From TrEMBL:
Gene3D superfamilies: N-(1-d-carboxylethyl)-l-norvaline Dehydrogenase, domain 2, NAD(P)-binding Rossmann-like Domain. GO terms for biological process: glyoxylate metabolic process; organic acid catabolic process. It holds the Pfam family NAD_binding_11. Residues 2-161 form the 6-phosphogluconate dehydrogenase NADP-binding domain. The keyword Secreted does not apply. This is 2-hydroxy-3-oxopropionate reductase. The keyword NAD applies. Residues 164-284 form the 3-hydroxyisobutyrate dehydrogenase-like NAD-binding domain. It comes from Herbidospora solisilvae.
């Protein structure tokens, strides 16, 4: 299948590479020529423009940082909808505002393009391993058309509702992830201040009811203060803004979400925006210094 892939960052590059390995013809586009070169080395074709990535595609996947980038790539001059052939399946796997996903779906339908929102969870490791969790909003028939592609990228693939619903579920995911990181950080600070080996302590926690994917994957790197970004604080800050906005729209109070959003904002203010979101530990340590 011919797939155009737009957005080749920490997540997009390994996702596109997995599609190449699965036998698909992938034409990638990114504003960074370095990323294009990396993808070309993996067997994909590098496009010089969005139009080149889209015009011959059966499926286009976008994996972009935020709503403004998705709007520019989809709606802008020389964008996806300008070059999309009728019947194209557009899978936006970015994490963006639900209302943006709804706008994309509506505008795509006018052009005869089938659009779904399919944000992911699982971080860089999930992208590399093809084990992402994918939450999908859109029409049932369009979701079913996408499953063959999505099975290459993830192992948990769930249709959660109409256009925009995938983004709402992703917002819920991000508030949970942020909260767990904050609590793991507090556990490390407590154990170390009490003279308890944090490695032994977190190993026990990981095997009990407190166990989580975050403890499984990140406890050792957090103890070692290694914050190589798999998902940057800057992006999680954006996601918490989406979550708090969704709460306002739904008319619900999410006090823990608001607190975690403040901690993530503090991490950015302290200059940690380019670090992994597990660097929330730095904020908790600073509070206690």
């Amino acid at each position: 299948m011919n797939i155009g892939f737009i957005g080749l960052g920490i997540m997009g590059t390994p996702m596109a590479a997995n599609l190449v390995r699965a036998g698909h013809t992938v034409v990638g586009y990114d504003v960074s020529t370095t990323r294009l070169d990396e993808l070309a080395e993996l067997g994909a074709k590098a496009a010089a423009s969005i139009g080149e990535a889209v015009s011959q595609a059966h499926v286009v996947i976008t994996m972009l940082p935020d709503s403004p980038q998705v709007e520019e790539v989809v709606f802008g001059e020389g964008g996806v909808l300008e070059y999309a052939p009728a019947g194209l399946l557009l899978i936006d796997m970015s994490t963006i505002r639900p209302e943006t996903s709804r706008r994309v779906a509506q505008a795509a339908a006018v052009k005869g393009v089938h659009a779904i929102d399919a944000p992911v969870s699982g971080g860089e490791k999930g992208a590399v391993d093809g084990t992402l969790s994918i939450m999908i909003g859109g029409r049932t028939e369009d979701v079913e058309s996408a499953r063959e592609i999505l099975r290459v990228l993830g192992t948990t693939i769930v249709h959660v509702g109409p256009a925009g619903a995938g983004q709402t579920v992703k917002a819920a995911n991000q508030l949970v992830v942020g909260g767990v990181y904050a609590l793991v950080a507090e556990a490390i600070v407590l154990l170390e201040a009490s003279g308890v080996d944090p490695k032994a302590g977190l190993d026990v926690l990981a095997g009990g009811l407190a166990g989580s994917r975050i403890l499984e994957l990140k406890r050792h790197s957090m103890i070692e203060r290694s914050f190589q970004p798999g998902f940057r604080i800057d992006l999680h800050h954006k996601d918490m803004g989406i979550a708090t906005a969704a709460a306002r729209e739904a008319g619900v109070a999410l006090p823990m979400t608001a607190l975690v959003a403040q901690l993530i904002a503090a991490a950015r203010a302290q200059g940690h925006g380019a670090l992994d979101h597990s660097a929330l530990l730095k904020v908790i340590e600073r509070i206690n210094s």
